[in-house]
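Good morning C.,

I know you're traveling, so I'll keep this short. The sequence:
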Amino acid sequence: MVTVFAVWEPILPTDWAKPGTSVLARLSDHRVRQFWDPGHAVAAILRRAGEAANLHAACCFRKGILWDFAAAYPPGAPWRDVPAGPILFDGTIVRVAPGLTAAIAATK
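The tokens, ready to paste straight into the viewer:
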């Protein structure tokens, strides 16, 4: 089964609080798990994972933090201090949506 983790981070001046019900409702698929990450811990882990796999996104940095970004991992990929290499590591979300859809479809 595919699981999508949507991580919300405070980046923009308007991101002063975790997203409310109406924002969270935008991602209504039952496979989506949403998290508020005010300390940017997930972004830091994903950045290290990309660097370990020699992948460097040319986009998606704001204030030195990965943002508006997608990473996809194959089924069974282990998550340790630094996750295994992703099969998709790019952004912005809107631009890479077709590749993300294809990566998810390939897991079926």
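Safe travels,
E.
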